[in-house]
Amino acid sequence: MKKSMLALLFAIGAAGTGxxxxxxxxxxxxxxxxxxxxxxxxxxxxxxxx
Length: 50
What we know:
It contains two helices and no strands. The chain has helices at 2-22, 30-49. The protein is elongated, with a radius of gyration of 20 Å. The mean pLDDT is 75. The N and C termini lie far apart (61 Å). The chain is mainly alpha-helical and 50 residues long.
């Protein structure tokens, strides 16, 4: 029973890792892109202040 539980956990972990790896920058939604633009704007303001 322990081997089957370990195999199940391994399969779930492998599937989760594959799912996360498939999420790339090409799949960013509009909110993610807006957040990145805000981050870049904050960085530019910080650079100007320094």
